[in-house]
Amino acid sequence: MSDTETAHWIATVPVADLARRRRTRVEVGDRAVALFLVGDRVFALDDVCVHKGRSLARGALWQGRVVCPAHQWAFDPETGRADGRDECQPVHDVRVVDGVVEVSAHPRSQEES
């Protein structure tokens, strides 16, 4: 794999650490990113909620949705779309390599979500 193919992936936390609380906040470059473990899949969204600017990592997981602690907006962790709203939370690609969660440094475009 070339440096350009790996340069945008940032190693964050061991997936085993994420399994305990099912959510955590990490720094990916200059962005705060919230990681969520839903079932056996890891998802990454910008941590600052598009609605009220609160930390999504301080929210909850409920019925497969990420719930903001400020006003209980629920987001699809795969697409970032808010239930019943036009707003969309930025989402990052994720992969697990040797037990460590790696996150793309840049969020996907909304067309990709």
Can you give a write-up of this model?
This protein has 113 residues and is mainly β. It has a single domain, classed as Rieske Iron-sulfur Protein (3-layer Sandwich), CATH 2.102.10. It is built from two helices and ten strands; from the N terminus they run αβαβββββββββ. The strands form three sheets. The chain has a four-stranded antiparallel beta sheet, with helices on one face. It is globular and about 35 Å long. The two termini are 25 Å apart. The model has no long low-confidence stretch (mean pLDDT 90).
Please report the first level of CATH classification, the CATH class: Mainly Beta
Mass-distribution shape: globular
What pattern of helices and strands is seen along the backbone?
HEHEEEEEEEEE
Q: Unreliable segments (pLDDT under 50, ≥5 consecutive)?
A: none
Helix content: under 10%
As for the CATH topology, it is Rieske Iron-sulfur Protein
Q: Which structural category do the helix and sheet elements fall into? A: mainly beta
How many separate domains make up the residues?
1
**Percent strand:** 35-45%
How many strand segments?
Answer: 10
| Tally of individual helices | 2
CATH superfamily: Rieske [2Fe-2S] iron-sulphur domain
For the largest beta-sheet, the strand count, sense and barrel status come to: 4 strands, antiparallel
Distance between the termini: 25 Å
Radius of gyration: 13 Å
Largest beta sheet: strand ordering: 2-3-4-8
Mean pLDDT: 90
